[in-house]
Every structure is written in structure tokens, then in C-alpha cells.
User: Which sequence fits this backbone?
């Protein structure tokens, strides 16, 4: 089956879906157009020819949109390579914070504000508890990645956090945890829930929140208090998804999450004129994989639901990795630990060199005669309208 299965779904039903849903945001429309045009020739192309046998290749340009299923692999490898050079000698942990589904209607109509608040609360929770000598007594490095989906493509807002089990103390020393996560789960839970609800209440009192028809009744202060108390009574249990005994694996592992989109082409099992069937993990660990079947328009609705607001940073850095002080902090850590354990491998490489290094694919080798004699002839750019 084609490697452009998701594009086929959009080609089949986007016009119908758009007619039924005229209030799509500009960023959703832009993402949909990018998926339709990616590697279709509509964005231009590059021509190359073998100087030995004369074989010609045409390579259609990609869209590079962060919501496109065909444009993340190279970006992911470059990102992981950069982060690998920032890994320190300590255990690493994967922590996941999930918001209750009862928040979903309010989250969806306040995405910029409340997704940003989720980033803030996860980081503050981890940093404040880590600073306490009872837990770590140091500032760790934290990378956070926002996801908004589950295996069925439903709305499921959660944050993936990679946390170093070692960090800098106030007096400029390194302190490391054991191989077990250094903060108790119930302590994380209570701190995180308290922070998110306190900040959310402040936003409500300041009149900063927008209320769509699905959560209109929350404008009423009585309903708001009742709803808020219900959320306080719920179990917001974060969990430790993975512990890395070999710290070198942490960034490669996180790479699975950073440039991941709601669903990839590889999960599409079957596609006909009306429906699409895709695979999903079992509901519980150890369960066999499931198959989900949706109409094309429902698939598009769920897919576009996970397009983030324009300019929103889904990957953020905290602790000793915060952008303002990262270089200085890593120099200190490097000196204390006798050097960093990894270096960038792909810095300064051309795209051709990167493809060869990562996937052992040499675009200079002619697919017909096998000689490394492919030369670029030129580019065709589609005139802007």
C-alpha cells in the first residue's frame, strides 16, 4: 500500500469535511493543505540525472509541516543528535502527567493558555520537589513534550517529561539519585493537581478563560465551584513510564515522542472509498492489538483536533537545560564530570550526508546502473499565487 495513505484520506474527504465544518482554524486549514501537497509535485521538485547511464530522477518537495506524517523522520534524527550532546552521567526517568478528561471541553477552547499552563505546572512540580533535599536537593534537566491524543485519536491531553536523576546543587556541585525515581508518585500527584487547579482558578477569576457551547454553564460561578470540587476529588495520578539505567538511551527513547504526530502511515491497515482501518495498542499492557475503523471525515476530524495553535512550542526545556542558562550549566557539569559522554554526530552534514549516515541511503547512487554518478540538474519551484 502507498506510503501516502493519510494524504489519500485527505484527498478523498477533506472537501466534504470542510463544507460540513466551516469553522476550521487557519492553522488546521494550513496543516490540511500541507498534507495534501507534500511530495505531490505541487510544492516543486528537484531533478537529477546519472552522468553514466542517463537515468533521470524527480524528487518532489516535502512540506515540512510539523503535522505531516511524511516530514518528521529527518527532523527527529537531527533533534535527537543535538540533545544527545546534552546528556549527563546520571539515571534518566520518563514521567507522564495526564489531565482528567473532564477538563477536555475547557482545554480545547483555551488551547494556548491551558496547554501552556500544563507545561508550567509540570516543570514547577518537578523543579520544586527536586530542589528539596528530601528528594534530590538539586536542579535536574527536564525536557517536556506535549501530546493531545490516545491510540484511537481521541482527545487525551498529557505531558511526557524526561527528567535527569542528577543535577546541580546551589553551591555548584553534582548530586545524583539512585536508579529509582527520587520523588514518590503521590507527592508528585498532590503537588501537580494543587498547582494546576490553583492557576486555573486564578484564570477564571481574572476572566481569562473562553467558554464554548460545550462548557458554557461553567460561566456560572455555582457550576464552576461544583465542577472544580469534582476535579479536586479525582485521582490525577502521574506515572513513571520508564527508567533508563543506561543514560545514553534516554534521548533516543524521547525521540519517539518529540516529533511524533497523532498517527503515522504505518498504522493504516486498510483504506477504501468510505472508511479507514488502523491499528491500536491493547487497552491494557499485554493485550493484543486492536483495529479501529472510522469514516474518512471522522478520521480527518480527529486528526485535525491535534493540530496545535500556530507558534505553540510543544517541546520545552527546564532546569539546567533551560535555554537561557543551558550552555553555562553544561560547561559546569562537563567540568565536574570530566567531560560529557556524547557528542553530536550529524552537525554540519548536508541532507545527502545525513541520509547516508542514518539510513544508509545514498542519493548520489543511480538506482539503475548502481554508479555514484547522480548529479542535480536543477529545481522547479511552483510560482506563488
Assistant:
Amino acid at each position: 500500500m502507498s506510503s501516502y495513505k493519510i494524504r489519500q484520506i485527505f484527498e478523498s474527504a477533506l472537501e466534504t469535511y470542510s463544507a460540513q465544518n466551516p469553522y476550521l482554524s487557519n492553522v488546521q486549514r494550513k496543516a490540511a493543505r500541507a498534507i495534501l501537497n507534500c511530495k505531490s509535485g505541487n510544492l516543486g521538485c528537484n531533478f537529477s540525472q546519472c552522468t553514466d547511464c542517463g537515468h533521470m530522477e524527480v524528487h518532489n518537495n516535502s512540506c515540512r509541516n510539523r503535522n505531516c506524517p511524511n516530514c518528521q523522520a529527518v527532523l527527529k534524527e537531527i533533534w535527537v543528535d543535538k540533545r544527545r550532546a546534552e546528556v549527563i552521567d546520571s539515571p534518566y526517568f520518563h514521567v507522564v502527567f495526564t489531565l482528567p478528561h473532564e477538563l477536555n471541553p475547557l482545554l480545547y477552547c483555551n488551547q494556548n493558555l491551558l496547554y501552556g499552563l500544563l507545561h508550567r505546572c509540570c516543570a514547577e512540580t518537578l523543579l520544586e520537589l527536586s530542589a528539596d533535599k528530601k528528594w534530590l536537593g538539586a536542579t535536574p534537566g527536564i525536557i517536556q513534550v506535549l501530546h493531545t491524543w490516545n491510540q484511537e485519536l481521541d482527545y487525551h491531553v498529557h505531558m511526557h517529561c524526561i527528567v535527569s536523576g542528577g543535577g546541580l546543587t546551589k553551591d555548584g556541585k553534582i548530586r545524583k539519585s539512585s536508579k529509582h525515581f527520587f520523588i514518590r508518585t503521590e507527592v508528585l500527584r498532590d503537588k501537580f493537581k494543587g498547582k494546576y487547579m490553583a492557576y486555573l482558578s486564578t484564570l477564571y477569576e481574572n476572566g481569562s478563560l473562553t467558554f464554548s457551547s460545550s462548557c458554557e454553564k461553567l460561566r456560572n460561578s455555582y457550576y464552576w465551584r461544583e465542577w472544580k470540587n469534582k476535579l479536586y476529588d479525582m485521582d490525577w495520578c502521574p506515572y513513571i513510564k520508564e527508567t533508563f539505567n543506561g543514560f545514553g538511551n534516554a534521548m533516543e527513547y524521547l525521540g519517539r515522542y518529540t516529533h511524533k504526530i497523532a498517527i503515522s502511515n504505518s498504522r493504516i491497515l486498510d483504506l477504501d472509498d468510505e472508511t479507514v482501518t488502523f491499528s491500536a495498542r491493547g487497552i491494557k499492557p499485554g493485550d493484543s492489538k486492536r483495529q479501529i475503523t472510522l469514516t474518512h471525515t471522522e478520521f480527518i476530524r480527529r486528526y485535525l483536533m491535534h493540530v496545535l495553535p500556530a507558534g505553540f512550542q510543544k517541546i520545552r526545556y527546564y532546569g539546567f537545560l533551560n535555554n537561557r542558562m543551558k550552555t553555562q550549566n553544561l560547561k559546569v557539569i562537563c567540568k565536574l564530570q570530566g567531560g560529557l559522554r556524547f557528542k553530536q554526530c550529524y552537525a554540519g552534514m548536508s541532507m545527502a550526508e545525513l541520509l547516508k549516515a542514518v539510513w544508509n541511503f545514498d542519493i548520489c547512487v543511480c538506482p539503475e546502473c548502481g554508479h555514484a554518478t547522480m548529479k542535480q540538474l536543477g529545481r522547479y519551484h511552483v510560482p506563488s499565487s
